[in-house]
Each structure stands twice: as structure tokens, then as C-alpha cells.
Amino acid sequence: MKKASLSSLKENNAALIFQSLRIKGPMTRAEIARETRLMPSTVSYITNLLIHKKVLKEVGSEDVSRVGKKGILLDINYDDFLFIGYDVGSAYSRVIVSNGKGDILYSKRFVSEKNDKLLKQIYENIKMVKNKFNIIGIGMAFPGYIDPENGVVIRSHNIDISNFEVKKVMKKEFNLPAYVDHNTIMMARSLISNNSHKEKDFCIINMGPGIGVGIVSNGRILRGYKNAAGELGHVTVNPEGRKCNCGKNGCLETESSSKAIVRNYEEISGKKLECEGSCESKLVYELAKKGDESAIKAFERAGKYLGIGIATLVNILNPEKVYIAGGVTNGWEFLKDSTEQSYNQHIFYANKDVNVEVSSIGEYITACGAATYAFEKYVREEIIP
Ligand SMILES: [Zn+2]
Q1: Do 204 and 324 lie in a common domain?
Q2: Distance from the CA of 145 to the center of ligand 1, in angstroms?
Q3: Which residues face 211 on adjacent strands?
Q4: Same domain for 222 and 350?
Q5: Least enclosed by CB within 10 Å: which of 97, 207, 210, 299?
Q6: 233 CA from centroid of ligand 1 (Å)
Q7: Distance 234 CA to ligand 1 centre (A)
């Protein structure tokens, strides 16, 4: 059912206040009004409501030497709102507990189980964390085709699950609200809410066993008509290339993902790599560092197609910056030159000066984005109405 417009307006105003407090830190009501360009009366109404609900708190007076009454500083009551951020990956998964500001109070990385065992692993991890912390809600990031509105993973090839009703299941199992979205969207959210991050038009490419991109345009995430935007991994970069699990040939994912780099190495060297579970590009990176020519060429081949993929993305969107994240970035030193060379060959001249760089947020970027998203959604859906 569509919400009444007054309630939506209230939600949006609260989200605006919430976001500016998170980025700028403690502010007086007058400063919030200036920052958000909302009416002072609206700011007073919403902040009083959020204080009453214990989402905001008063943290002392502003430090100014002017004459007159000093304003009271408000801040988000981070410590009472702990959220789980769960990044479900096909090779590795990561769980964190975050206070929504991005401070990580607990973190764990582990090899992902497959199929039914994966679901069992998710339940057990959440149960374990919930027993240790006073958790308010869960943010979960998945690869694949997601319905964030209803909290359902419709289909994920990479982890081989379908129609997983995360929101419903988490409510039933743990009596906690759960908020679900695509892993690259969560990555983008992590950058949007990061204080050190300034661009309003940027892309973040997640390079692991699969490849996707989170697109941010004028500060907002671009999702597409059916939440399926950002499938950069399935853009054709080599029509003569390998068969992809989507049914096409030569998708970026089959040429430049972590699995593709392993395959490149095996084809070039004629050797088979042995590892527990599926092999990742980290293994090829270790060989490249030791000077293994086949391993170095495996990265160079992946970079050639990655350059085409990034140039295609940038030619359409003209972002200020393109970030690269995910497991493949371990080997960026061996990918960088061939990627840049290929990028320069395929880029439209007006886009030549776009920066491409590895994101510095680190391996918990997606889990952090998921926890932050859960906090925002919780305030919008459970506190404001
Ligand atoms: Zn494909």
C-alpha cells in the first residue's frame, strides 16, 4: 500500500536530518536547519520526535563566544542502536556489528558454505552475534537479483539460492527487522555515508567471483526500473569469449573476475590450481608476486577486458571517479597497467580525465554499508511513523 504523502515527507525530512548529523557530527537545531534547508519549525518538530524515541540525544551546548543564548548540540544516539551487517559472498562472507556511525564493534570473515548449508551458516552466525550484543536489526547484502522492497533474494547464481525470503525468515527466527539489498549497492551506501568521501557522481565496481557496479548519480543510488541496474559483469566485452552462467559469451565476469583470472592462469600455464573449495585470484596474485610469468599474464589479460568494461561504464555515465573494490583488488598492481592502457584505447576523449582507484575502505565495506542501511531503514520504518 502506498504511504500517505505527509508520512513520506516526515520520513524524508527525518532521513535528511539524520544524514547531516551523521556526516557533520553534533549540531544545534539552527545549524541543522541551515544545513538541511528545512524550516526551523520542521527541524524542531522532527528532532523532538527523534529525541523522544531516543534516536537523538542532547550532548551539551555549542562552543561559541557570541553574546546570547547558546544552542544545545544534538547528536545521534549511536550506542543504543547496534546493527548486524552481513555480507554474503560466494567465496567468503563477513559479519560485523556496527553502531550505525560505521564504528565496528565486532567483525568476522569466514569461508561461505553452499546451498542449504549456507542458510544454516547465516542463522548460526546471527544467533551467535545476537547472543553477545543487544541487536536492533539486520542489514544483509547478497549478490544476484534482489527485491529490496520485500526483502527477498529472487535469484543468485553465484551462491545458488532462489526466492530466499530474508525479511520474513529473520522476523520469524529472531524477531528482528531485516533489510536486504545487492552487495554493490551496499558498497555504494558505505561510500555515501563515509565522511572522507566527497564525490556526488561516482561508481564503485565490486570485483570478486562476480562483478557488479554501484552507481551514484548526484548523491543518489541509481537502481533502474526493476532494481537490476549495475550488472556490469554481464556487459559483453569479448564476443568470442567464454560462456557465462547467464547464457551469453564473453561477459566482463567471464574475462576479468576472480574466477576468470584463475582460468586465465590455468590456460596460459597449462597447470591446474588446487585449492579447498573454489580457487580465487589471490592464489594467482601470490604467484605473480614471486615473478611467475603466467600469473602476471593472467592479470594482464583480465585488465585488457576490464579496461573495456570501465570505459563503457564511464562513456555512458560520466562519473567524477570510479572506485574498484572486492577480492580482485589484491592483485591491482598487476592489473593496473593493462587496465589503464585498454581504458585509454576505448574511452571517449571527454571522459579521459576520470580517476580510477582502489577504494581505501577495506574488506568490510559491504557489511558496513549493510549495517548503515539497516539503521537508516529502521529509523524510517520503525521510529518515524
Ligand atoms: Zn553473463
Answers
A1: yes
A2: 13
A3: 207
A4: yes
A5: 97
A6: 6
A7: 4
Asked if the model's pLDDT at residue 6 lies above 60, the reply is no
220 and 274 belong to one structural domain:
yes
Q: Please tell me the distance between residue 228's alpha carbon and the centre of ligand 1 in angstroms.
A: 14
Cβ pair 56, 76 in contact under 8 A: yes
DSSP state of 155: E
Q: Which spans in 25-62 are helix H?
A: 29-36, 40-52
| pLDDT on residue 4 | 46
Distance of CA 158 to the CA centre of its chain: 17
> In this structure, what CATH number is given to the domain that contains residue 30?
1.10.10.10
Q: Which of 27, 48, 76 is the last residue of a domain?
A: 76
pLDDT in tens, 318-377: 999 999 999 899 899 999 999 999 999 999 988 887 789 998 878 899 999 999 899 888
Ligand 1 centre distance from Cα of residue 230 (Å):
13
Q: Are residues 208 and 314 in the same domain?
A: yes
63 and 104 in a single domain? The answer is no
| CA 150 to ligand 1 centroid distance, Å | 26
- State whether 209 and 120 are in the same domain: no
Give the predicted TM-score (pTM) of the model: 0.83
CA of 105 to the centre of ligand 1 (A): 37
Answer yes or no: do 133 and 39 share one domain.
Answer: no
How close is the Cα of 316 to the center of ligand 1, in Å? 20
Query: Hey, is 11 helix, strand or coil?
Result: helix
Task: Find the 156 Cα to ligand 1 centroid distance in Å.
Answer: 13
Q: Which domain holds residue 341?
A: 198-358
Tally of structural domains, the chain: 3
CB contact at 8 A, 202 and 322: yes
- Please identify, among 76, 96, 112, the residue that sits at the C-terminal boundary of a domain: 76
Instruction: From 236, 229, 296, 213, select the one nearest 261 (Cα to Cα).
Output: 296
Distance 256 CA to ligand 1 centre (A): 12
Question: What are the contacts of 8-15 at 24+ separation with CB within 8 A?
Answer: 10/46, 10/384, 11/380, 11/384, 11/385, 13/38, 13/42, 13/46, 14/46, 14/49, 14/50, 14/379, 14/380, 14/383, 14/384, 15/376, 15/379, 15/380
CA of 292 to the centre of ligand 1 (A): 29
How much distance in Å is there from the Cα of 245 to the middle of ligand 1?
Answer: 6
CATH, residue 276: 3.30.420.40
